[in-house]
Amino acid sequence: MKIISINTGSSSLKFSLFEMNDESVIASGLFERIGMEGSCYTIKFKGEKVFQEVELYTHTDAVKILLDRLVDLNIIHSLNEIRGVGHRLVHGGSKYSTSVLITDTVIHDLEEFSDFAPLHNPANVLGIQAFREVLPDVLMVGVFDTAFHQTMKKEAYLYPVPYDWYKKYGVRKYGFHGTSHRYITNCAQKILGRDDFRLISCHIGNGGSICAIRDMKCVDTSMGFTPLAGIMMGTRSGDVDPSIIPYVMEKEGKNASEVLDDLNKKSGLLGLSGCSNDMRDILAQVDVQNEQCILAKDKYVRSVVNYIAQYYVLLGGVDMICFTAGVGENSISVRREICEKLACLGVKIDLDLNHKCGEMVKISTDNSSILVYVIPTDEELMIARDTLQLIGR
Ligand code: AMP
Q1: What local confidence, expressed as pLDDT, does residue 357 receive?
Q2: Is it true that domain 2-144 has CATH number 3.30.420.40?
Q3: What is the pTM of this model?
Q4: How far apart are CA 145 and CA 180, in angstroms?
């Protein structure tokens, strides 16, 4: 049975087509610059890569071409083989705590929650509508980034601000990367062979969040009302004192959304280093003693360590720490530095094992008080699994 996982952005559509019998990826790819000049697509399958520039006025154009190409390229024989479409949906507000079959109500709710995720939710709706138009009889499932975090208690998700803001406007912590943290939790369950464990999942990529998990459920997470909160990221500041915003507005003659834009797009690694949001560039500059890059890397490590330490106490000890996403899966030195700073908690890693990248590997030593793993995340597979489960019902 084949399931397609979809991640729609405002001008892009990413897909992975799975054969669910063995959970293998048959094809994957990206449609880019939809509605803009220079639109194009890339489809990868069986070790081949097809790239083409093509006019894509709407997301529906992208979906039509995608499905045509899957058949033309003999990746599938007919569209009937696609039994379900799973959509990555960014914001489900306080309403969605699990994945759901997509109905008119879900689409309406996504529109309703667009205030919370103005860039993502409307794009997600475009993706859903495009597939509805082209594959009207195929069941679709929505997998929310926020859903996994719905198990947080009020004392975790509320901010200490006027309670009315929560009641009237939904001001609270929602958390993101939930699909990735849930995937990591499921892997930890398989590794440990039980459900009753305490886990800190570190999804550290260009965006990043840390999640405290007890008995397979989210207890707290670092991202907040929006993905701007929490650890320092590629271009996002993470937690800062909100008083900075009006102060900089006045100094630079900017409005609130311009300063917020600076915090989202010009801060983090990019802001402190002044040269790049990519950890690879930062580390290359660290090697040649670039002081700004050393500062950016040190601040990054510190911000991750601070959250791990906080969640260690919150959980009353930890059984496993997992690293995932671009930096977590690939950066030997960042992982090493984080773990070295956790030595006071009894964390010890094997420097040779820590050299492995791109595969699931235990990097802690046998006498480490906490298991430390690197686990490549797979949000697309999680979406496909949820889709299969829900359409099967
Ligand atoms: P993601 O958002 O999960 O795709 O992660 C992207 C980020 O991972 C990039 O911006 C890089 O900073 C980082 N990254 C990828 N490969 C490496 C690597 N080999 N060493 C250090 N950082 C890496």
Answers
A1: 86
A2: yes
A3: 0.96
A4: 8
